[in-house]
Amino acid sequence: MQADPRTTHTLPLGDVRGASFLRWLMLSGLCLFGLHVAWTLGLVQRVLVTDLTQISAVILLIYLGGVIWGGWRASQLSAAHHALAQLRTGFLRSGRIDATPKGPQDWAGEYCAGLLVPDSDRAALREILIERARGAHEAGWFVSSLLLKLGLLGTIVGFVFMLGAIDALKTLTYADLPQMLGRMGSGMGVSLYTTLVGLLANLALGMQNLQLDRSAERLVAATLHFSERELLPSLASRSA
After folding, report:
1. Distance of CA 214 to the CA centre of its chain
2. Residue 130 CB contacts under 8 Å (≥ 6 apart), including other chains
3. Could you give the CA distance from residue 41 to residue 29 in angstroms, rounded to a whole number?
4. Cβ(184)–Cβ(165) under 8 Å?
5. Among residues 153, 187, 136, 141, which one has the least CA distance to residue 59?
6. For a designed S-S bond to 55, which of 11, 154, 205, 220 qualifies (C-beta 3.0 to 4.6 A apart)?
């Protein structure tokens, strides 16, 4: 049996194969290149040495972990887009849909297979699809906000160091003034460097999470478009 002529167009839906992972690779490569340049110029070493609290080092480690997680998630989304493209291509060629999932990221196939079940709850199936596509991204946004909060924590700690040095003026002599100024400078360095590192890491992970969210939204939209505009109308016309 041939597919409905209305479904024989081959305009792509969602992302092309590997597009999500390539976008993550380009963004992460650009950020890591900037980090490499900062290391070459000695800026990273200066930050790590000046920050006595080592909050900046913790931020950098969490950021690198977030980048690795983002690559893993981008690869999952790429596999899900590819599974949707295969599902749609097979339906356009044969007019049939294989209800057997092709892999752990065949979320579109599981959604369409659920639609074929009599009296299925389409709203619940849609919620499950959305949760699988972008539910895990809440952890990425939490990590991104955590980096910003760590930077603000470093700001507070740095000001505490500065205020401690100022409070010691009551007992310091003129000879102790250079030491007091050094403590104030250390506190200011902790405050500024942790804030800067936290803001930059938050910005970089925010862009990564935004890209992942957009990829997930394109996957959900493409799956709903295929099911509502191609799959279900074709099956309804045949049953009629």
Report:
1. 10
2. 220
3. 18
4. yes
5. 153
6. 154
Nearest alpha-carbon partner for 230 in 108, 128, 132: 108
pLDDT recorded at residue 6: 45
Q: What is the pTM of this model?
A: 0.82
- From 153, 233, 239, 193, select the one nearest 48 (Cα to Cα): 193
Torsion of CA 150, 152, 153, 154, to 10 degrees: 90
Torsion of CA 76, 106, 14, 82, to 10 degrees: 70
pLDDT in tens, 188-216: 778 888 999 999 999 999 999 999 999 99
Tell me the pLDDT of the chain averaged across its residues: 83
Closest residue by Cα to residue 54 from 189, 199, 203, 205: 189
Contact 80, 105 (CB under 8 A): yes
Count of alpha carbons within 13 angstroms of residue 44, beta-carbon side: 15
Residue pair 234/115 in contact (Cβ under 8 Å)? The answer is: no
* pLDDT tens, position by position, 153-194: 988 888 887 776 666 566 656 665 566 666 666 777 788 889
Tokens read off for 114: 């659920």
The answer to whether the beta carbons of residues 111 and 97 sit under 8 Å apart is no
Question: In the predicted model, what is the mean pLDDT of residues 89-103?
Answer: 76
**Please, are residues 85 and 12 in contact by the beta-carbon 8 Å criterion?**
yes
User: CA separation (Å) from 185 to 162, 192, 194, 201?
Assistant: 8, 10, 14, 24
